[in-house]
Structures are given as C-alpha cells and as structure tokens.
Amino acid sequence: MPEAATIQTPAVEGAPRLSPAAQQLQARLAATPPPHARATDAARTDALDRLSAQGLPGPRDEYWRYTDPAPFNTQAPDPIALDAASGDPTLFAGVDKLRLVFVDGRFDAAASDELSLAGVEIAPLSQADAQPDHWVGDAYGALEKQGQSPAARPFAALNTAIATDGAVIRVTGRAARPVQILYRRSDPAADVTIHHVLRLEAGADLTLLENGLVGARGNIVIEADLAPGAQLHHVAAHRAGVPRVSNIHLFGRVAEGASLKSFALSVDGRHLRTESVIELLGDDAVAHVACAMLGDGTSVHQDDTVFITHTGLRGESRQVFKKVLKNGATGVFQGKILVRPGAQKTDGYQISQALLLDENSQFLAKPELEIYADDVKCSHGSTTGALDETALFYLRSRGVPRERAVVLLVLSFLADALEEVEDEALRAEIADRLEEWLTARAKG
Amino acid sequence: MLQINNLHVALEDEDKQILKGVTLTVPAGQVHAIMGPNGSGKSTLSYVLSGRDGYEVTEGQATLEGHDLLEMEPEERAAAGLFLAFQYPVEIPGVGNMTFLRTAVNAQRKARGEDELSAGEFLKLVRERAKALDIDAEMLKRPVNVGFSGGEKKRNEILQMAMLEPRMCILDETDSGLDVDAMRLVAQGVNALRAPDRSFLVITHYQRLLDHIVPDVVHIMNDGRIVKSGGPELALEVEQNGYADILAEVADA
C-alpha cells in the first residue's frame, strides 16, 4: 500500500489544479490507516493509481449532473445518534439464514453465525486478505476496474483502495439458506468503506440479503461474478428513517445462462446513490435490477444509476424503478442499456416511474439506450405522475378512509418493483414492512 | 331513505351547470330508475351523491336517512350506508381483491363503531356471497379488477355491494358492456339484495336492465332535471318511442 497519492480532479478553468475536493480526499486518505492487505495489496495499489489518474467528479461531470458528489467526500459524515436506529431491523428476522454481522464496517465473529453452509465458502475479507494466495486476490477489484469504463466511478475505486472489510463468498452449489449481511453500528459517526466479493461457480445458487445501517456514511461495493448457469438473488434494504449518506456499487458479470437479480428497498435517508453496473457476458444471461423507494422530506435525495451491457447473445435485462416522493424529496434515475455489436436477440427493458404525492417533490430521469446490434428488442419508459384521483375516489367510496386509501395506492404503485423479488415469502415480508412504514408515516 | 331537493350542481373547473334543480325521493325498500339521454346529468348525480371531487353544489340538499350527505367525505357517506356501483370500475394493480374487500368492510364497521370481522368470519362470508355471483377463488385472489372482463368487473361491483350491505345503492349504468347472460347474473345479484330497509337508484340508458330489476318508479332526466316520473311502463315507452317523444310531450306541457 503506497502513501496516499496525489488525487487530481479534471482541470476546471479558473480553478486551482488541486481542487478542494481533491485536497479533501487526500486528507481523508492520509487519515485512513492502510489495511493489512496481503492478497489484495496489488489490487488496492492499482485502484489508488487509477483514482489518482481519473480524479474525482467535477462540477460539470455529466454523470453527476443530478447528484452532488461532495457529501461522499467530506472529511467526516454528520453523526447519526445510535438511538436513532437502535436494534436490528425486523425485516428478514423471520427468515432462516446464515447471518454475517458487520459493526462499523468490521466483521463481528461473535455476533455472526458459524460460517458453515454446504456449498458455500465464506470468510470476512479482513481474514481472507491475510492469506497471500487467497483467490480473493484475483477477484478483488477486478469487476470494479472493468466497470470504470465507459463511465468513471471514482468512489468505487476509492472503496477498492481503502475498504476495511467485507464478505468474501464463494458458492459451489445450491445454498440451502440465504446469507444475510447485517450492518450494525457502535460509533454514531462511523464512516464505513466495505467491499464484498461474491463468486458463484457453475450452477451455483445463492440468495444474499443485506440490511441494517452500515454507518453514518457508507461506501459499499459488491462484486458478483457469476459462472455459467449460476443464480444470484440479492435483496437489500438499508435502514429506513435515518439521514444516512451512502454510495453503493453493485458490479456484476454474468456468464452463459446465469442470472443476477437484485432488488433494493430504499426508504428515506439523506444522500444516496446506488450504481448497478452489470455485464451480460455469456449467451442467454439474465440481469434484473429493481428498486422500490420512498422519500419523505426535502433532505432526501436518492439516485439510482444503472449501466447494463449486453455482450452475449439473447441476453435479457430488466430495470424496474419506482419512486414515491413527498414533501420535497428528490429522486434520480439514470439508466442505460448498452448493446454491443453482435449481442443479437437482446431483450432489454427499462421502466422508471415516480409517484409525486405533492408539488414540492421532483423526479429526474435520464434513460439511455445505445445499440450496436440490429436484431434486438429494447424498450424504455419513464413516467412522473400524481395519485390517480379516480382510484382514490373508488377506494373512498367503499368506505376506505383517505389515509388508508393513499397507502393502498402507493403499494399498488410499487407492486411492479416488488414483483421482482422472486421468493414469495420474502416479497410478502417486504410488502408488510412497507405497509407498516407507510401507515405509520401517514399518521405522522 | 334518500331525499334530493332542488339540487343544482356545476363543474368546479368550468362555468358549466350540469344539474339544474333535481328533486327526488326514494323511500325505503323501493327501486327507482333514472333514464335519460346522454349528457342529461345522470352520472353527475351519482357522483355528487357519493362525493366525487370536481363538482360544486350551488343550491339544494341531499340527505340519506336525514343525514346531510353533501357535508360528508366519501368514506363517511359509505359508512352511512351509501354505495355507488361504478359504470367503469377502477383497476388497482398490486392490491388483492380480497384485501380490498376486507379493508372496506372493516373500515365501515369501524366507522360505525362495530367490531371488525375476524379473518375467518370474513372469509366465510365472502366465499358464500361470491359463489352466488359465480365469482371463483381465483378472481378473489387477483388484484382489484385487473384483467377482469367487463362482466367480471360488474359482478365484482355487486359482490362489494353484497359484502358492504349498504342501505342505499346507486347503480350507474351497470348494464353497459354486459351481454345478456352477464346482465341476468348481475340482476339476480341485485334482486337478492332487495330488502324492506334497502333502496336502489338504477341509472340506465336502456329498458332491458329493468326487465330484470323491476323498478317501483321510473324517472326521466333531461338537461339536469327530472322531467317525468311514472311506473315501469314509462321505461317501455322509452324503449318503443325513444326519448324524443317524451321530451317533446314534456316541452309542450
């Protein structure tokens, strides 16, 4: 691990070469103790070099037009009182799973289940990294590096360079139980950088659950490499109701006949950006990404940025994003489908919809298709609308009070995104939690 | 049961008077029909009574068993016993028909200070009432009205009516879009609900529904007013001669 390198932003006319953002980052790097990395040392050095070369997003960066990168790079996050989100979330509590607990971004063996599950090898990154020849050395940062082009993702490179811990999971068969990554905190100001590496061998099957509150600020990277015929279901629900700041990246590579499905439930928070960067490399590969989001209040800014690349034949991709916004919340969606030359018979689908519950909220959407094959089916749609007054009247005319009718219609709006969760029991549990949250919120 | 007195209604968004003095009394246990040409104000009357936004009552009153309807929110009117079967029932994806029915039934019971039905009680009741309307378990499981045929939607409206047991039922062109068999099924459902303490206001273009749901009184509406009232024979007269004759006769009088 080299000393903190000089990080430069793209030159901006009239601005000093070393911008405040770059100085800020340098200060952060200087204050970050270098992890005792052995297996991933080369990858970390490489990431830092790349970060230095590409710099941080500037004010005119097209990719950061709707979301200010600054909160991801301040010296320290605003603390979130521990009692603001005390106890574990009830979501997934009833699921029979293998639980990995991370406290302030560090693996807590005592709080976690025994890391033994047939067909699955699990180790915390901090331990895997101590073995110079661990396979994670080759995997760590590989998909992240690939995902830097054509659009740079500097905070993911930063994550690779400095991540303190994470889950390293190799799946060789069908996992009998889901693996849960549960985040806890002991420090109100925890500024967490965590990096998970998943490798699913041919025909492997895993459900990965991710929830809790990672920290006052979280920089999370998940790299998921799927061999032919592998299946990954990822369901994430980061802690609701606290002003968390987080930048999350999911990098996926999907081989022939494999399938990666990721669903996120996002409720409130302050400054959130989730990037999903997935390549359908093999033929007949499948990738679905979906999000159901609720944002209440002017301080809520939630950005979903998706980049799906079709390389193999007959790939199928779906993006389903639904955002419910009120009291001045902002939702952002940037979704891209890139169809490479030769990726014939691609079936790409993208829908982003916002339900604005008042006139103060806003939804910013940028759907993009870039297609270099001539026999493909790609569609995208984006809508922004208010509650359907006719449906509201219909429900009320049956005696359903207005508040409750609004809750039902919001759930109705989110239904398509929830449908993306394949496991019926999980989907029902998420719907129940959503309903509880909406009902409580409607009264407040 | 229902008393409407000199009701004047305008559209909120434009300066347009739709109802120009409707006066109508439906006593308990009776079925009244309202017929009239397009644009006469029939549907507006049903919406104003049930509390839809977008209309402004400029004059007159409407009461249900003495309670001022126009002062109440739509859900309060429902709890007070009013029910509107929609001409175009609304599709609500993602909300199960059963969930919707149970929410509605229990919300009304709660508003009236009654105990909510348990899951078991509700299930038993809904199965029994659905069966009479030829509504199967699959239809109950599906999202509200999503993927339903025209006939299924109307039957679903009658099921809601059967579950909510309202005192005053308004049927807004329930026969539209129905084939003969579906209409018979719907009419059977309505007839099964006829009771001494329940009244109906049946809005329709055509006489044929009234062959199945025989009214006590038929009203002809035109240009925002009730222009003629009579027995079931009035509906037959419309069927044979159209509205023009009746309207001309009224104009002459």
Report on the structure:
The complex is a heterodimer of chains A (444) and B (253). With 444 residues, chain A is α/β, with parallel strands linked by helices. Chain A folds into 2 domains: 20-282, no CATH class; 388-444, no CATH class. Chain A is 21% helix and 36% strand. Chain A is built from 9 helices and 19 strands. Chain A has helices at 20-31, 41-54, 125-128, 136-139, 142-146, 154-162, 389-397, 402-418, 424-443; strands at residues 98-103, 106-107, 120-124, 167-171, 179-184, 191-200, 205-212, 217-226, 231-238, 245-254, 259-267, 271-280, 286-296, 301-310, 316-326, 330-339, 347-356, 362-371, 377-385. In chain A, strand 1 (98-103) and strand 2 (106-107) form a beta hairpin. Chain A is globular and about 70 Å long. Chain A starts with 19 loop residues before the first helix and ends with a helix. Chain B has one domain: 3-Layer(aba) Sandwich (Rossmann fold). In chain B, 41% of the residues lie in helices and 28% in strands. With 253 residues, chain B is of the alpha/beta class. In chain B, a hairpin with a 4-residue loop joins strand 1 and strand 2 (16-26). The longest helix of chain B is centred in the last third of the chain and has 20 residues, at 233-252. The model of chain B has no long low-confidence stretch (mean pLDDT 91). In chain B, the strands form 3 sheets. Chain B has a 6-stranded mixed sheet, sandwiched between helices. In chain B, strands 2-1-4-5 form a 4-stranded antiparallel sheet. Chain B has helices at residues 42-50, 74-79, 97-111, 119-132, 137-141, 150-164, 180-193, 208-212, 233-252, and strands at residues 2-11, 16-26, 31-35, 55-64, 67-68, 82-85, 92-96, 143-144, 168-172, 199-204, 217-222, 225-230.
